[in-house]
Design a protein that fits this description.
By secondary structure, this protein is α+β, with helices and mostly antiparallel strands. The protein has one domain (about 10-255): CNF1/YfiH-like putative cysteine hydrolases, CATH 3.60.140. Helix content is about 25%, strand content about 30%. It is built from seven helices and 15 strands. A hairpin with a 2-residue loop joins strand 1 (about 25) and strand 2. Helix 1 packs across helix 7. The longest helix is centred in the middle third of the chain and has 11 residues, at about 140-150.
Length: about 260
């Protein structure tokens, strides 16, 4: 399939200069980054820090739901793929790496350490989606798939906002030549990579910004936070040794 020309440099600028849109707040022990103007429009969302509970037991789930005035939370056994589930009031998917929501009162949550969590929002519909976009999922274009699924169900690409959460960035994420070749073979631009000190560095934020712009999403807000080298120790990094810790990324529509 022919790929349309994309102004990749503009995508990079749009994503990288929007960190000021985010605020860091704490409610009842839940510390998170969010975009206040979207919260004010009824989109409950955020990127939790490692200081928060993990949503691994019923008490933590209840605390989360009560704090954000939600009825239930949907999580998945993540597989580093591109399976996305559209979830209604009674749906309970098991495995996958993305969730689309169109009913109020439900939260979708994914767990990340170094991989980007990406939230997509059409606040006027309203409809939201969240994906776990590690390098395998990004290579499989999970972010593009989420945009298409939302558009197929009536969301407007012109109204959509994409949020890119804390993740390991191109300053720190080294990969092998086989990963670079896989991305280039799938049509990704070469400038999502750079070389330094004999290593290849991949920026998944740039790769997903390119996918979003290619899908006609113009509004991209990036936290600008690297889980690996951030001076603020509130993020768990798998590559920095936090093998079992995860951050929670979530989105929902207010009742």
């Amino acid at each position: 399939m022919a790929k349309k020309s994309v102004n990749y440099n503009m995508a990079y600028r749009n994503a990288s200069c929007a960190a000021g849109k985010f605020a860091r707040e704490e409610e009842n022990g839940w510390e998170y980054y969010h975009v206040p103007e979207l919260t004010a429009r009824g989109i409950i969302h955020g990127f939790f820090t490692r200081n928060c509970p993990s949503l691994m037991d019923d008490d933590e789930n209840r605390s989360f739901l009560d704090t954000f005035s939600l009825d239930r939370v949907v999580t998945l056994h993540q597989e580093h793929g591109n399976t996305i589930h559209a979830v209604g009031l009674d749906d309970s998917p098991d495995k996958g790496d993305g969730i689309l929501l169109y009913k109020p009162g439900i939260a979708a949550a994914i767990r990340t350490a170094d991989c980007p969590g990406i939230i997509l929002i059409d606040p006027a519909f309203p409809m939201v989606a969240i994906v776990h976009a590690g390098w395998r999922g990004t290579l499989l274009r999970i972010t593009s798939k989420a945009v298409d699924m939302m558009a197929e169900r009536g969301a407007s690409k012109q109204r959509m906002t994409a949020l890119i959460g804390p993740s390991i960035r191109g300053c720190c994420y080294t990969v092998g030549t086989e990963v670079k070749e896989a991305f280039l073979n799938e049509g990704f631009p070469e400038n999502i990579f750079h070389n330094g000190s004999g290593s290849i560095y991949l920026d998944l934020k740039d790769a997903n910004s390119w996918l979003l712009t290619d899908a006609d999403i113009e509004t991209i807000f990036d936290t600008g936070l690297c889980t690996f080298c951030s001076l603020d120790p509130v993020f768990a990094s798998y590559r920095r040794g936090a093998r079992s810790e995860r951050q929670i990324n979530f989105v929902g529509i207010r009742i």
